[in-house]
Amino acid sequence: MFQQIFLGFLGLCSGVIIAGGLTGLLIGLSIVPRYAGITHTARYMLLYEDITLAGTVLGNLLYLFKWKISLGMPFLILYGTFSGIFLGGWIMALAEMADVFPIFARRIRFQRGLSFIILCVATGKTLGSLIYYYHAWLS
Question: Over the stretch 30-53, which tens digit does the pLDDT of each residue have?
Fold first, then answer.
């Protein structure tokens, strides 16, 4: 029994450390500040950072303990939407950091419609997340 308690505590501590690193990376890549700037709500920056950290810790707890949340289809749609936004934000921030889109556009001599392509990538990621969570939630 002591071994199980120790392993649970170790897993929880590891999850909190990973969540802290993930939150630091999110803030370091300026994903959270960029969303605050776009929505003109920069005065709530500390709240956004706290919510981001709480979300990553809660996500680790849900994954670690395999808790089932049965709140129905409206919650699933809401969760899938926000997961898609989160994933899309990550993809776009990482692509921007690596200058993937400008380099790719120059290489293939892509002149117009780059913003449309970026929007399509984000929409595809969002829809993919919705479909993934819909199928995983039902099983």
Answer: 777 777 777 788 898 888 878 877
C-beta separation of 114 from 101 below 8 A: yes
3-state secondary structure of 12: helix
Phi, psi of 40 (to 5 degrees): 60, 40
Q: How far apart are CA 133 and CA 137, in angstroms?
A: 6
Cβ atoms 57, 19 nearer than 8 A: yes
Which residue in 122, 103, 112 sits closest to 31, CA to CA? 122
Q: pLDDT digits over 81-96, tens only?
A: 887 777 777 777 666 6
Which DSSP string corresponds to 73-109?
HHHHHHHHHHHHHHHHHHHHHHHHHTTHHHHHHHHTT
51-55: long-range pairs with CB below 8 Å, 24+: 52/23, 52/26, 52/27, 53/19, 53/20, 53/23
How many residues belong to the chain? Answer: 139
pTM of the model: 0.49
Contacts of 119 (CB under 8 A, 6+ apart): none
